[in-house]
Design a protein that fits this description.
Layout (H helix, E strand, L loop, with lengths): L7 H16 L4 E2 L2 E2 L7 E6 L11 E7 L5 E5 L16 H12 L11 H5 L2 H5 L8 H18 L5 H23 L6 E6 L6 H14 L4 E5 L7 H10 L17 H13 L5 E3 L3 E2 L8 E2 L7 E3 L4 E6 L13 H10 L3 H4 L4 E7 L4 H15 L7 H9 L2 H14 L7 E6 L8
Parallel strand pairs: 6-12, 6-13, 7-12, 13-14
Antiparallel strand pairs: 1-2, 3-4, 4-5, 8-11, 9-10
Length: 423
């Protein structure tokens, strides 16, 4: 209409899109993660209230053959005659929206997501189906509730039910079996390319095990890099080899310190204390240096589970290295054999293409820059990742196909570029 009338189309579109994008919330009601199921939607009903409604709540409901029943709300707010820039999502309206959302409840059917869970490629590879009884499923959903609270809006089905929980329950099963045959801690190796989510997985495993009274100690191969002075000596000794110019590849890590630390954690008892090394990657303008020993964190024994994680965990020397540069790394990799002898289990996050690492590293740099922290330029980022690519291409195929050892239980989790589990 004229300038004094409603600009209905523009306002409705703006209000709807903004409300939808910003305010659609995945609701965790008790133990249920409510989500869109892209298949088998029976009915998708949408009731949208627009106009002079302050803080209204709109309900979307989907009912399908095996969906949970999806309940959430969209606040569209008030459309004014003259004020085109009125904030449709101000704090009072957000509060009313949240209050209305909490009042919505969905009836929980029995075992509402079993088909979703059991269809997970990780669930299948872990061989969990024959081990899941009624009590196990109860434990599953209790763990899901814990994860949902921890993850908040990031609590997706793919992350909670198709990745973290299958891994957790596989580890629980393997730990029980390992404990029956050995004393002391169970040692798990976790291999995952940079940016693939190994730190996130590790953190959530620690929290879930802690909820069950299982104590964990975490060590990362990144914390066993040589001191700055040792790095310089190494770079000078192999001046023509770009793979050893900076920290990163096997050869730049103190494998003796790694072995001694993990072995001490695995065997520590009541009253024992083990210091875990830490590394300052920002020291010496990014060249890095080991943190002074008095600042290393201390783990008090006994420890039930030790996790050693790293981008090159499980890499094995090959018989015929592809280049002279990787041949030197190959020789250093032989020293890792004694560390692998400490492992009871191996968890491998598998990627279809090592090129994912470039994008994942860029995402990490963009996140740091968004927080006001310094980050690498595109050229620096490429140069950094380029130094790891030869090792990825040389050693990942063997790790994925043959594993670390025929006698070592290993679970491979294949993910796509979005870190979602795939077959």
């Amino acid at each position: 209409k004229d300038d004094d009338g409603w600009r209905g189309g523009r306002h409705v579109l703006r209000g709807f899109v903004k409300a939808f994008v910003v305010e659609v919330i995945r609701v965790v009601e008790d133990e249920d993660l409510v989500y869109f199921n892209s298949g088998n939607w029976g009915i998708f009903g949408v009731c949208l209230s627009v106009g002079l409604l302050r803080g209204g709540v709109v309900e979307l409901e989907t009912m399908g053959d095996h969906t949970l029943g999806f309940f959430t709300g969209l606040q569209v707010g008030t459309l004014w005659h003259h004020n085109h820039t009125h904030d449709l999502l101000d704090k009072p309206r957000r509060a009313r929206f949240a209050a209305g959302l909490k009042s919505i409840s969905a009836e929980k059917p029995e075992n509402p997501r079993l088909d979703v869970i059991t269809s997970s490629p990780v669930f299948k590879k872990a061989g969990l189906e024959s081990h899941m009884d009624e009590e196990s499923w109860d434990d599953w959903f209790k763990c899901a509730k814990l994860l949902n609270k921890e993850l908040g809006r990031d609590a997706t089905v793919d992350r909670v039910h198709k990745l973290y929980l299958p891994v957790f329950f596989w580890l629980k099963k393997q730990i029980r079996e390992a404990k029956a045959n050995k004393s002391g801690s169970v040692v798990v190796g976790l291999s995952c390319p940079q940016g693939g989510g190994k730190t996130t997985i590790t953190n959530f495993l620690v929290k879930m095990f802690a909820a069950e009274g299982i104590t964990c100690a975490i060590a990362s191969t990144d914390d066993f890099y040589h001191s700055y002075e040792k790095q310089r000596e190494l770079a000078e000794t192999y001046a023509s080899n770009p793979l050893l110019e900076f920290r990163g590849n096997p050869g730049t890590m103190d494998v003796d310190l790694m072995f001694n630390t993990v072995n001490a954690l695995a065997s520590c008892g009541p009253g024992d204390a083990v210091n875990i090394p830490r590394y300052n990657k920002s020291a010496y303008k990014g060249r890095g240096d080991r943190v002074p020993e008095e600042d290393w964190p201390t783990v008090n024994g006994p420890v039930d589970l030790v996790i050693l994680e790293g981008w090159c965990m499980g890499f094995q020397p090959v018989e015929n290295p592809s280049t002279s540069d990787i041949a030197v790394v190959n020789e250093f990799l032989e020293y890792f054999a004694r560390v692998y002898e400490l492992l009871d289990l191996m968890l491998v996050v598998e990627i279809a293409d090592p090129e994912y690492v470039y994008d994942w590293r860029k995402q990490a740099e963009d996140t740091m820059k968004a927080k006001g922290k310094p980050g690498m330029t595109s050229a620096q980022l490429k140069d950094f990742v380029d130094r790891f690519m030869p090792a990825y291409r040389e050693y990942l195929p063997g790790l994925y196909s043959d594993g670390v050892s025929a006698d070592l239980p290993q679970l491979n989790i294949k993910i796509d570029s979005n870190r979602i589990p795939i077959d």
